[in-house]
Every structure is written in structure tokens, then in C-alpha cells.
Amino acid sequence: MKKVISFVAALVLMLGLFPYSANATANSKTENIIHLDNGYYVVVEIISMDNRATSVKSGSKVYTCKDSNGAEQWRATLYGTFTYTGTSATCTSSGCTTTISDSAWYEVSRSAGKSGSSATAAVTMGEKFLGVTINKESISMKLTCSATGSLS
Q1: What angle do CA 120, 54, 82 make, to 5 degrees?
Q2: pLDDT tens per residue across span 37-49
Q3: Nearest-CA neighbor of 42 among 86, 81, 75, 87?
Q4: In sequence order, which residues have a C-beta less than 8 Å from that of residue 147 and are 6 or more positions away?
Q5: pLDDT, tens digit, for every residue of 136-146?
Q6: How far is 42 from 33, CA to CA, in rounded Å?
Q7: Cα distance between residue 63 and residue 83, in whole Å
Q8: What is the pTM of this model?
Q9: DSSP assignment, residue 87?
Q10: Rounded Cα distance, 67 and 101, in Å
């Protein structure tokens, strides 16, 4: 009985890792690097998922803040789902999450929305030292789908 339960649990976990159909493909690329005034920098990466059977594109734009040594401080991710026809594209849903890697950082605010062919979000992160906020970083995020299904 334990083996059956273990097998079912493993199967459920594996299926949870693949939220897209078998026809889906994933691509990722680093779009750019943003240098901040305080010595930190933000790596911006686009991850796209598309299902070849439909004109639907899902993807995310990940903003990873790192210190001068390359250690991750926090990450903000904008998610978007789009439909495209070859002549136009529409954002059908958007969302935003944050992940904190260094406990000195905390989330001040976060919001997400959509407009036309773009998913948008705004995130502000704060950094504390000895309980006092010493730094705040605000990021405006935008993920846009072209009429042909290309994310930027």
C-alpha cells in the first residue's frame, strides 16, 4: 500500500511540473541588465511558452536583483497569457510574484494589470539594516506579445 501511495504522490508531483500540453515548448533569453545606483544590478530574462496547436502564448519576464558579487537578493516575476492572430495580439491575463533571497529585503508593494497586448506590473522592494529601511528599489515591468506571438 505504501508503494502505491508513493507512486501516486510522485505522479502528482511530476504532473504538476508540466502545466502545459505535450505540444508546448519553452524558450528563455536574457533581455538586458539594469545597473542600479547602489551597486546592485537587475538581470531581466524572458521565458516564453507556446502551444503550437493554438494561437496562445504564455510567458514571464523575470527581474532578478543581484549584489556586486552576483548573489541573488530578490526576484520579481511578471506573468502573462496572450492570444495572437497574425494581425493583432491581446493580453488575456497577468500576474506578478516576488521571491526574497536575502532576508534584508522585503516587499513594499506589488501590482499587476493588462493593457492591449501587454501585461504590466509595478514592484517596490525595500532593504533594511538594523530594522531601518536604507534602500528602496522600484521596478516597472512590461511583457508584450507581438501579432505573431513573439514576446518582448
Answers
A1: 5
A2: 888 999 999 998 8
A3: 75
A4: 84, 85, 86, 87, 88, 89, 117
A5: 999 999 999 99
A6: 6
A7: 24
A8: 0.77
A9: S
A10: 11
